[in-house]
Amino acid sequence: MFDIIANIDRGKFTPFAALPDEEPFYGRIGAAGVKTLPIKKRAVSIFDFYELAKFVYSNNIDIVHSHGKGAGVYSRLLKLFCPRVKIVHTFHGFHYDNMPAAKIWMHKSTEKLLSGFTDRFVNVSEGEQLQYMLAGLLDFRKTVIIKNHVPLESLKLMESFIKQSKFSASNDDGIIRFCAAARFDPVKQMPFLVESFVKALNRIDLQGKIKLLLIGGGEEFETCRGLADKMNAGSAIEFLGERPDALEIMAKCDIYISASRREGLSMSMLEAAALGMPILAPRVSGIAELVRSYEKGIMFENNDFDSFERAVCLVFDQYKKKRAEESSAENFAAKYEEHKEYIKKYEKLYTETLNGK
User: Fold this and answer.
1) Which domains does the chain have, with CATH numbers?
2) What is the pTM of this model?
3) How confident is the model at residue 170 (pLDDT cuts 50, 70, 90)?
């Protein structure tokens, strides 16, 4: 959201933002000259909805673009009070698995109702679009796919890391570092990643040769750390927690790894690909379409240890062979052009939505 706000053509669009009053983005969006409205995080509030309706009405806002489930409730209900406003909604992942049947029915029924108040849907990958269509939660005629893109700010940081030789060549101890940047929640399957990495480390004799760095926090963080202790992982796994310098840590690692059972389109994997890192990830929706077409991508079967172990061996061997031949100098010009086209897709979407196309 910040990337779109920061780079959209201000000659054509005047952005506003409603988001939790948390740093860094609330302050940064305000500093960019954007009028903001604070709302509660991950909670639906009648008071916040009332303030949002006033915000939209008093500022003559024409389009409301919501991101995610909670924001999508607010945006679509605005139609009841501000019927002239156009509503664009981005799902950011399929969130209806691993729930009790009654809860799934309730969530899907709510989404079907809200879809009638939605002018355009945005999916961030083909896999995500297919899941919503099969669930009957999407009108294909009102849907566009705009795949996630690495933010411009992150691209500039990556380029500076590489130019300063901070990329993985800075590791001179001979250890190949795997890293994952994710929330420790059930969807990401971090316990599987921890357990499988330690098992593979022991079974294929890679002790002292590979290491796993885990960036992020969440409900399963302590569970995973306890599991690593129980398996005597020692220094083979580092739990770094939530870090503001996550991108720089990634840039100093060698291989990106994920065990997530689904994604919309993973921003961390996009960042890893932009850095030129090999990616090891499961063959699931939202991941397969990215990794399959990436020349340094290797997939394993979801939640399958034997497949995971084979993939670790493969990526380890391929990395050793290719790394010596590669230069750390990367040409980011093409990535910047791709980013411009990404922003233009949103500008086109907003213009067409306003014109009723």
Assistant:
1) 2-149+337-354 (3.40.50.2000), 152-323 (3.40.50.2000)
2) 0.84
3) very low
